[in-house]
Request: fold
Amino acid sequence: MTIERVTPKHYSQVELGRRAMALLIDFFIVWLLSSLLGSSEFGIQIVPILVFAIAWVILRVILPYRNQGQSLGRYAVDIKLLEVQRGKVPDLQTLLKREGIVGLGALLVSITLSNIVRNPTALLLVIPLAIDFGAAFSDTQMRQALHDRYAKTIIVSSLRGYSLDIKVKRLVEKMRRDMRQ
Reply:
């Protein structure tokens, strides 16, 4: 069995840090929403899981489908999601496949965060997401994680966005200069 590699057209490669920042922004929004609707009890709860899943689909599937491949997190760091073959925003089925994999891993991380105090072994629930994104470190050509390879998608730079990563870098650099003086 061989892996068929598709050579990207002229996509600008996105650093893994920007991708991680976009995912963290989206995850934090969805996790905060689902945590507010949950109770203070430990364990796996149905209502927060349903809220998390619905919010994840809205934020990471419907919004990018209608917003040129950008979720709120991707918009914040000037990146977007495209299909490798066509170079266009993926259709809903492709987005659902891709975000189903990422969303399941993010849901496991959410469960970990709500149960880590009482049960430290809940940290093992982070492993599937780590394996998924770990593949992007070894892919030097296209920086695709396992969910990107499965859905045949790629994350590329966009001219449209808020440039939050650049603004944060400037702010940190300014603070460093001010502290030196």
